[in-house]
User: Fold this.
Amino acid sequence: MSEPQADVTPASRWLGWLHNLEDALLALILLSMVLLASSQVIMRNLFDSGFTWGDPLLRLLVLWLGLMGAMVATRLDKHITVDALLRVLPPRLQQASRLFTKLATALVCGILAWQSVRLVLIDYDYQDMVINHLPVWVADLILPIAFSVMTLRLLLQAAMLFRDRT
Assistant:
């Protein structure tokens, strides 16, 4: 006999779909990078040619992969932490320290999100191209998206820590 399923709310269903989309995009970017880099190496070694847009696109995909990975790490609460001091603190201070760290990190990510929106708007005004006909502002869109998502997740995690503390 199977266990009864927990009630699935529309919000949790939507969030699950969003997480799956995020994971799929991360995998797609990584796969694209592997295929593009491999084809560049093969074309250079066998045919003395390659895609002129290949290397700039790979650099851009590294940025997207890194920021998408940071979003997932924040979602899973698996980002880099320095917790040497945290281990020796009493439990109550550990919770307060975690809460402070989440809020401080959310503040930094929020500032970065705001400034990256400003960068995208400046890039939009200048209409420079990064690769052939790809505008720089489109390539930079990952910056405000990633930092906004990380800010929201960190604030939600801080709110859950605060709720559990009281």
Summary: The chain has one domain: 10-165. The chain has a mean pLDDT of 89.
